[in-house]
Every structure is written in C-alpha cells, then in structure tokens.
Amino acid sequence: MVLTLYDFLDVASKEGNRAPFTSNDIKKMVLHTVTLDYGEVTDVTPDIKLTFYNAGHILGSAIVHLHIGDGLHNIVYTGDLKYANTRLLSKAHTRFPRAETLIIESTYGNKRQPKRKIAELRLIELISKTIARGGKVLIPVLAVGRAQEIILVVSEAIQRHELPQVPVYIDGMIDEVTAIHLTYPEYLAPSLRKAILYGENPFTAEYIVKVESQQMREDIIASREPAIIIATSGMLNGGPSVEYFKHLAGDEKNTLIFVSYQVKGTLGRRVLETGTGGSIMLVSPDGKLETIRIRMHVEAIEGFSGHSDIDQLIAFLRDMEPKPQRIILNHGEPDAILKFKKRIEHECRPGGKLEGAPFCSNAPGRGVYTPSILDSIDLV
C-alpha cells in the first residue's frame, strides 16, 4: 500500500499534476493503520466484528466478513476476487461462519477469459518467435501481481528449455514489489512457497536482471542481443515501459505484448488500436510532439487477469457456504452487471448450478440486486 502510494506521488510529479495528498499524509496514515491476519476476528465498533479472508486477487487482498449486532445479519463483501488457483496465489476463500448478504464484484460478469494455460502457451510462443528472429520482447505489466505472474511463466519456460536463456530485464517498481512477496511466502500458492523456502527461488534466477540506472536502460535498448523486458506500467501510461516502447517500436524484429486490460484513453489502448504499421503522436519530455512509427509486432493476451470471469464467479457462488439470502452486484460496467444477474437467474432454474440457493427465491428481501434498483428495495 505504502509503496504504491509513493509511486503515485512520483508519477503525478513527473506528469506535472497535483496529488490530493503528500508524503507526510502517507506517514500519518501508516500510524493509523492496523494490519490483520486472515481469519482474525476484530471489533471495529461495539456491535460490528470484522474478519478478512483470502480473495485470491493480489498479495494480501481480502474478502471482508462483517458480523453485525448479535450476528443476526452478516455481510460478505468480496472486493476484487479471483476464484482460480494461479502460479502466485491460491483461489479465494468460500467458507464463512454466516452470510445473509453477499456483495460481489462483476468486472467480467459478461465474458469468459481464455484458460490460464492457453494464455501462458501463447505468451511463450510469441517470445520464442521474437527471440528466434533476434528481437526484443517488451511486456508492460502492473507492478503488483501481474509482473510476478509473468516472471514465473517466463522463468519456468526457460528452466524447461521451452525458451532459450536470454536476459530477462526487470524495470520499474517490480523488484521492490517482488521483495514484499518474498517477505510473506505464507500468503503465496503452496507450490511457489515450497520453491522459495526449500528449492530454487524463481524470482532470483541468474538470467533475471534488475535494471538499476538510466544508463543500463540505454545499454539494453542499444544492444543487438535478444532479450525479454518486463517493465511498468502495464498500460504505457508512465514508467520505463514508455521509454522502451519509443525506442523499440521502429524495429520489426521486436514484439510488444500486452498482458493487462488497456483502459480507454491510455497510451497502451492507442497503441493496441493502432497496431503494427500505424503511427501515433507522443509528447516528448521537453513538450514537443513526436511521431512514433510502429513497426514492431503488437499483441494482446487475455487470461492473466486477477479478476474472475463469469464462469469463475458462478463457481464461487456455487461453492460458497453458507449461501446468502441476497446478492448485491457491484464493481462492473452496467452491461457486465446485468448479464451476470441474468446468468445467476439462469443457474437458479431446476438443474442449474445454483438451484435451491436462498438467493434464488422471490420472497421479500431475497434475490439478486443491482445498483440501479437498490434505492427502492428494503434489503433487511
């Protein structure tokens, strides 16, 4: 949390924007922060008890369980949720003491993602082809979670000789975030935890190299040797990935691989929509416009998201115990929320995966609710 907040201040400063808080505010916030282990019950008011459970999204992400009053009402709030095992983390927790209301995210409530294994194979294939033609691979990543997943995929592929052993350069905040992961191996997936504690740490392999200076970055760009560059930020909206892109874009031997969703308005989205063979305008550090011709291959791979897709969300509802009486859908585009609601209702039918669940009932106070109708519903 502290690391990402300081990074926000750094990015805001470089972009000439005024941040809504200062470094002193961050220090003050830390003094008022209480950390909790998963499963630790804590009183937050005289009549509300709070418990965190693993959400599977990123390191330390938590599903919130609220025990209200004498326990007559219990709320489970998923936050960002991943109900599938990944290389980095175990899937979200599904067993709770009691649950009358569930608030669940709907980010991918309207779509299926490719299976993680298919996404990994596609990534390895694109890297292999690029290295074979003597090019460099640039993978812009989110520093927390996505970067570590990609490092693990690439590291295992090299160890299995599915990829040649070329330098894997790590640039941006990735190394610091990875160090935090290594400090808390008990929160990681069992197989990864075992490798870190008793075997070969995949994050510290000899071919993984931290970029420590601007000169080193320039040397990597100037080198004619194949390499894999994993750099922040994941949407090319700041960080060293933008510098690499500017210098590597003009060479058709190179490949840019997006492994994160590219939000509208970001440079990453513009590059993805423009594609190989197009041109985009960028503002240089001295304020001048410059044209970047994209000759490098531009690819996007879905399947690495830290959010659950529609099938995983339904599986979470199927496996959750006890089943809630009502579900509130949030954190999704309106279309995603509505399609998720329809899918739940479909699975509530006889023979469906959710048949017989309390929230499938049309009785007062039960059912599936969306933000647009909450104001008119008496939930309790």
Summarize the structure.
With 380 residues, this protein is an alpha/beta fold. The chain has helices at 2-14, 23-31, 116-132, 146-159, 174-183, 190-198, 214-222, 240-248, 267-274, 310-319, 334-347; strands spanning 42-45, 48-54, 62-68, 73-77, 101-105, 136-140, 168-171, 208-210, 227-231, 255-258, 279-283, 289-293, 297-300, 326-330, 367-369. The strands form three sheets. The protein has a seven-stranded mixed sheet, covered by helices on one side.
List the keywords.
single chain, 7-stranded mixed sheet, 380 residues, Metallo-beta-lactamase, Chain A, 2 domains, Rossmann fold, alpha/beta
Explain what this protein looks like in three dimensions.
The chain starts with a helix and ends in an 11-residue tail after the last strand. Helix content is 32%, strand content 19%. Strand 14 (326-330), helix 11 and strand 15 (367-369) form a beta-alpha-beta unit. The protein folds into two domains: 34-112 and 307-376, Metallo-beta-lactamase, Chain A (4-Layer Sandwich), CATH 3.60.15.10; 116-300, Rossmann fold (3-Layer(aba) Sandwich). It is built from eleven helices and 15 strands. Strands 1-2-3-4-5-14-15 form a seven-stranded mixed β-sheet, with helices on one face. It has a six-stranded parallel β-sheet with strand order 8-7-9-6-10-13, with helices on both faces. The protein has a two-stranded antiparallel sheet with strand order 11-12. The model has no long low-confidence stretch (mean pLDDT 94). It has 380 residues and is an alpha/beta fold. The protein has helices spanning 2-14, 23-31, 116-132, 146-159, 174-183, 190-198, 214-222, 240-248, 267-274, 310-319, 334-347; strands spanning 42-45, 48-54, 62-68, 73-77, 101-105, 136-140, 168-171, 208-210, 227-231, 255-258, 279-283, 289-293, 297-300, 326-330, 367-369.
